[in-house]
Write a structure and sequence with these properties.
By secondary structure, the chain is of the alpha+beta class. It is 36% helix and 13% strand. Among the domains are: 131 residues, no CATH class; 52 residues, no CATH class. Strand 14 and strand 15 form a beta hairpin. GO terms for molecular function: serine-type carboxypeptidase activity.
Amino acid sequence: MLYVDQPNSVGFSYDVVLNSTFDTLFLVPEALNDTGVVSFDDYPEGVPEANSTLWYGSFPSQNILHTANTTAIAARTLWHFAQGFFGSFPEYKTCNKDISLWGNSYGGYTVSVTAAYFVSQNEKIQNEKIQNGKLNGGAAAELPVDTIGFTNGCTDLLYQLEYYPQMAYNNTYGLQVINETVYEMAVAAVPACLQLVRDCRSLSEEYDPDKFAFNATVNAICANATATCAAIGAAYDTASNRSDFDMAHMKPDPFPPYYLAGYLNQDWVQKELGVPVNYTEDSNLVANIFLALTGDPSVVRGLEKLEYLLSSGVKVALVYGDRDYRCPWLGGEALSLQANWTGTEDFRAAGYEYIHTNRSYSGGVVRQHGNLSFSRVFESGHDVAAYVSLQPLRRSASLLPFPHPTNTKPKKQPETNFQIFNRALFNKDIASGRLPTSGRFNNYSTTGPSSSFSIKDVLPPVPDPICYVYTVGSACTVDQYVAFEKGNATVVEFVVTDPSGGVDKGLRWDLLANDGLAN
């Protein structure tokens, strides 16, 4: 298994290593290259002293010209990387050359586009349309794609956007975050936003067909479409202090914990790994470029990529935790039903079955036909594989036409996620893992109700916040933030112990930044 952290300048990948400062209190960018990381060379009056919130380290350059600015460019970059990687390490050669790509969140865009690009390149190689495609002294090689999948992926605004208002107003947890008036306003705003997305894509196809993002006019129109559509989803944030990544949690949200950053950034760990750069959760630079400069989410025709992959025989597994608002499962379900491929009608006719994680419990439900599956994983947020629930699922007795395991054992969704992953890769049905789904069994379909919305649950208690120094912007209260600024926060093993946290003390970070409450 190869973990690729890309596009460039994310996490362990980088362009050049620069000695820099890292501001743990960084919140809102004022410019595209404003990321909280500043090179020593960019301090005209000398580098400020390090303290509890301004750290010294080695980071990428933060140069907007040194990273991908669209998903399409990132896909091409990864294809070239894969050509070099698999061709340069003969010890990694196996009898099975198939590649599978998996992702989370924005991975709904990147996995779909990247896999489709790999498949299209394979077709060109087969048809000898890549002439003299030599890399590292050898001809371009086919990189066969077997399976793709992603958890809570945002993939195509045209088909997923309209489900944000519904998730905030009418969901399976009985939580009404926005009132009926706001819901109706949000729903009414969707058509105009979708038209902006269509305009963006039309202009992009005409004036930027290769998605190099060189056309400033197209970029501006697509960035505006992205921002306008984001405002519809933001009704949830305006109305509540609930986490976008788990509707059961409040802001600041400590979950999933980010303890790996404190571990990976220790000097001895970096030396053992042979890594010359500090680890960061993500790249503010890449996010700024994709969202504010090129409007990449509006550009990507994710559904078309999924349809192309399905028509090419690639297995597609869509996996969604049902408490996530950032990329709601309702939109993922709609995406799966909209896909137009040879198995469209059979997939739509298939019903939901429970996903039997093991003999003790079922972790969700799945609709599957042939190579396409859509899984709703119970009691999980955006990072599906991180959740363990201690409460039994509460449902009516007649939801599905077969019994559901009734017990109070924890539902370990890391295992559910792994079973879905494993079953998809090895051509087994997602529901049980016992039935083959390839070859003459490729017409396999689940049976059951056409909707799983009637499966209801209740929200668990809100977890206690933990202010971790690597995630100040998402896991700390305003009081703790101000204590950091004043230099009187008590930190033990990267965790703030004084002042103590609490969801009742949390404030919206956008208000904090805009009103200057911490200045």
